[in-house]
C-alpha cells in the first residue's frame, strides 16, 4: 500500500520518466512530420494549454480587477497612438 501512496504523490515525476523512456524507445513519433506533428502541437496547442492553465489558477478577485482595468488601458493606448501621427 505504501508503494501506491508514493506513486500517487510522485505521479508527475513518474509521467516524465515514462515520457522520456517512450521517446527513447520510439523517437519516430515525435519527429517533424510524424504522427504527433510537433511543429503544430508545440507551437500552438502546448502554448495555448499553458496560458489556459495559468488563467484557471488566477484568483477570482485578481481576474475581476484585471478585467475592469483592461478597457481603460486599451482606450488610453489607442488615444495616445493617434497623437504621434
Automatic annotation (TrEMBL):
Pfam families: SBF_like. It comes from the Eukaryota. GO terms for cellular component: plasma membrane. Gene3D superfamilies: 1.20.1530.20. InterPro entries: Na+/solute_symporter_sf, Put_Na-Bile_cotransptr. Belongs to the bile acid:sodium symporter (BASS) (TC 2.A.28) family. PANTHER family: SODIUM_BILE ACID COTRANSPORTER 7 (PTHR18640:SF5), SOLUTE CARRIER FAMILY 10 MEMBER 7 (PTHR18640). This is Sodium/bile acid cotransporter 7 isoform X2. It comes from Phyllostomus discolor (pale spear-nosed bat). The lineage of its organism: Eukaryota, Metazoa, Chordata, Craniata, Vertebrata.
Amino acid at each position: 500500500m505504501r508503494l501506491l501512496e508514493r506513486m500517487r504523490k510522485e505521479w508527475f515525476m513518474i509521467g516524465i520518466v515514462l515520457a522520456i523512456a517512450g521517446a527513447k524507445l520510439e523517437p519516430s513519433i515525435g519527429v517533424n512530420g510524424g504522427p504527433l506533428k510537433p511543429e503544430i502541437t508545440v507551437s500552438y496547442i502546448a502554448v495555448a494549454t499553458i496560458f489556459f492553465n495559468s488563467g484557471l489558477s488566477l484568483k477570482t478577485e485578481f481576474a475581476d480587477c484585471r478585467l475592469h482595468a483592461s478597457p481603460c488601458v486599451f482606450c488610453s493606448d489607442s488615444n495616445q497612438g493617434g497623437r504621434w501621427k
